[in-house]
Specification:
This protein is mainly β. It contains two helices and nine strands, in the order αβββββββββα. The protein has one domain. 12% of the residues lie in helices and 52% in strands. Strands 1, 2, 3, 4, 5, 6, 7, 8 and 9 form a nine-stranded antiparallel sheet that branches. A hairpin with a 5-residue loop joins β3 and β4.
């Protein structure tokens, strides 16, 4: 999921939270990058960022919001088949490092690449749980 990819960046940037004021969060562009998923499907998948207008919003209490537009094209590198997704959030990271995605996202769960709409949670140790919504098996869609 775009969020799983960005969680490492959020965790690295959490130190910025201490400098944010209660009234105004510190706002920083996410700067998502293309991601190659090896082993998530029976073929390699490239997630190519086609529009990245996302921002981190760091709050003084340690919470981070991710807002804005993120669009990605997923490509089966064996066949060249592509599917475009709008994976805009929002998402938030709590002070304990738990990540909550609200809206659309993509990621790897149980060895399967998925795209989902709803609410999902990723704990600091990388465990993903879908709390609600729907899922699309991206591997099957790209086959």
């Amino acid at each position: 999921m775009r969020r799983v990819v960005g969680v490492a960046a959020v965790m690295a940037a959490l130190g910025v939270c201490a400098t944010a004021s209660a009234a105004r969060p510190v706002v920083v562009p996410v700067n998502n990058t293309d991601t190659l998923f090896k082993g998530a499907c029976s073929f390699d998948v490239l997630a190519h960022i086609t529009s990245d207008k996302e921002f981190f919003r760091f709050f003084s209490g340690g919470q981070v919001l991710i807002t804005g537009t993120l669009k990605v094209t997923m490509t089966n590198l064996s066949t060249g088949k592509t599917i475009a997704y709008n994976v805009s959030g929002p998402a938030r990271v709590t002070p304990d490092g738990t990540f909550y995605g609200e809206g659309l996202g993509f990621g790897v769960d149980g060895g399967t690449l998925f795209q989902g709409k709803g609410l999902f949670r990723v704990t600091p140790d990388g465990q993903l749980t879908q709390i609600g919504g729907t899922r699309v098996d991206v591997c099957a869609a790209l086959s």
